[in-house]
Amino acid sequence: GVSFDLDEANIILEEHREVLQQIINNNELNNGYLTLARDIEVMEPKSPEDIYKAHLLEGRGAGGGTVDSARQNLAATFVNAFVNAGFGQDKLMTGSSESSSGGSSTSWLFKNKEHGKISAAASLGMILLWDVDSGLAQLDKYFHSPDTHVIAGALLGVGIVNCNVQHECDPAGALLVDYVDKEDSSIKIGAIMGLGLAYAGSRSDQVRLSLVPILADGRTPLDVIAFTALSLGLVFVGSCNEDIAQTIIFALMDRSEAELGDPLARFLTLGLGLLYLGKQ
Which of 76, 94, 135, 149 has the fewest Cβ atoms within 10 angstroms? Predict the structure, then answer.
């Protein structure tokens, strides 16, 4: 996922350089993916039930899988996102074109609770993977939600849609940076992880300038610190960036024994490890 810019030393002809830079930036990745999917006739959306094959399990009546539980719905959200990743359509989140004006995505979203809503909103980013323009347009409605979990999920979805694609307008940065300073922890984490995924491997200075101050602030809650370290590790993977490494180490030293015992604290060390990935 490490990105690079071509210059005259690499390619002399300007039109060649532009075309190759677009390929490196993965701008046509979504179109190529969908062309292949149409050619091999796998465009039809699959539902989680198609994957579970629940009807083959012994002792399951026809109505055996119909009970709604938050945990089952969360599992279905993930299965649905992975099986329909990049196809731009599914049966839970994008729904059918005939669905009513409210759309089926909203009703599926609210079959989940709290962090389940984060995952459901973010799963739309997975379904629309690499399709930056359409993905951002469909995620936009969630930014007007009164529910902070839904907004957090939409921010994470923006990061997923943009993952490994360098768009010339840089929409992920423009959208996410504004939410990094919000008071609500879940919204803050959604924006931070969104930046980590959207700019993974890019060594973006914009992301560094946005996230390092959060990491260096001793008053920041541990969960926010943990995901900030992880995001910086993703963006600066294999860079051996000394300043970020030092900031993560100081953040670890600032925390109490009790905080370091929290499972989330391991993301700080994971972020540190990612900075040196493959560098021995």
Answer: 94
Look over the chain and give the mean of its residue pLDDT values, rounded to a whole number.
88
User: For tokens 């989140």, what's the residue?
Assistant: 93
62 or 72, which is more confident: 72
Checking if the pLDDT of 117 tops 50, the result is: yes
The pTM score is 0.87
Ranges of H-type helices in 67-217: 70-83, 104-109, 115-127, 132-139, 148-161, 171-176, 185-198, 205-216
CB atoms under 10 Å from CB of 273, counted, come to 12
DSSP string, 63-96: TTT----HHHHHHHHHHHHHHTTTTS--SSSS--
Phi-psi category of residue 129: left, alpha or beta, with phi > 0 → left and psi -120 to 50 → alpha: beta
How far from the centroid of its chain's Cα atoms is residue 52's Cα? 25
In this predicted structure, which of 15-29, 32-46, 56-70, 137-151 has the lowest mean pLDDT?
56-70
Using only C-alpha atoms, what is the Rg of the chain? 21
Q: What sign results for the dihedral spanned by CA atoms 144, 145, 146, 151?
A: negative
